[in-house]
Specification:
By secondary structure, the protein is α+β, with helices and mostly antiparallel strands. The chain has four helices and three strands, in the order αβααββα.
Length: 91
């Protein structure tokens, strides 16, 4: 896995962007330190998907981008009628 800093991840062209980044780089983008990032990953509580590859952790860029930019997510849950409000379970 190549080293990627948060600034390199955001500045890289589409063809140069990695598919995964280190847990440390992902944690830095999310504003957390090394210890907290590893503790959350080990507990399965990191805010996005984390892959365990051998003895290393890797975070898919796709999930990280979705977490950092929620407006970029596909809105598959919107009804065809255009009403994007969730239905209430109250009477």
């Amino acid at each position: 896995m190549t080293r990627t800093t948060p600034n390199e991840l955001l500045a890289a062209g589409a063809a140069e962007r990695p598919k995964v980044v280190s847990l440390l780089a992902a944690g830095r983008l999310l504003g957390m330190g090394r210890t907290k990032a590893y503790r959350l990953a080990k507990a399965g509580e990191f805010p996005c998907r984390v892959l365990r590859i051998g003895g290393r952790y890797a975070v898919p860029v796709r999930g990280l981008r979705a977490l950092l930019d929620p407006s970029a997510e596909r809105l598959d849950h919107i009804s065809p009628g255009g009403d994007s409000r969730p239905t209430s379970e109250e009477g």
